[in-house]
């Protein structure tokens, strides 16, 4: 049975490495990711994108130049599903594929101008939701948060 994680309990910063606080941090990260996804839902539907299409396009927007296999691996999609969705995005002229400089078999992905235009509204929604959270937390907390997230994705 999973331990109870109470996200509303007072936080004692001296205990940040205890299991309960680490569980609480994981819970907050997951809840934050869900909140960002929920905030972008209306813009996603308005753009006519499925959730996997949005996931692929937004990942390319924030990390352009990944190879097809790097992106597929980072998103954890199966080869057939990823290939089908990427093909659909390519047919809609939302992405561009460039031949890799070190390996001609590789294709590096970027957004086309249409892809940038389509994802800009989603990016604005995400920025505004994050801006509210940052404003509420203050610059010191934002700095700490950014350092934690950067260490997490290294």
TrEMBL record:
GO biological process: response to stress
InterPro entries the record matches: HTH_MarR-typ, MarR/SlyA-like, WH-like_DNA-bd_sf, WH_DNA-bd_sf
Annotated ranges, domain HTH marR-type: 12-154
A GO term, aspect molecular function: DNA-binding transcription factor activity
Classification via Gene3D superfamilies: Winged helix-like DNA-binding domain superfamily/Winged helix DNA-binding domain
Protein name: MarR family transcriptional regulator
């Amino acid at each position: 049975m999973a331990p109870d994680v109470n996200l509303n309990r007072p936080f004692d910063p001296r205990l940040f490495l205890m299991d309960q606080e680490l569980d609480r941090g994981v819970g907050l990260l997951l809840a934050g990711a869900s909140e960002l996804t929920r905030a972008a839902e209306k813009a996603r539907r308005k753009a006519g994108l499925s959730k996997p299409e949005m996931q692929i396009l937004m990942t390319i927007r924030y990390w352009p130049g990944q190879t097809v296999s790097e992106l597929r691996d980072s998103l954890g999609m199966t080869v057939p599903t990823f290939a089908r969705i990427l093909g659909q995005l390519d047919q809609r002229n939302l992405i561009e594929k460039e031949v890799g400089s070190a390996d001609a078999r590789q294709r590096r992905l970027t957004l086309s101008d249409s892809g940038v235009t389509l994802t800009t509204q989603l990016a604005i929604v995400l920025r505004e939701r994050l801006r509210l959270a940052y404003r509420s937390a203050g610059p010191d907390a934002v700095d700490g948060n950014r350092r934690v997230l950067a260490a997490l994705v290294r």
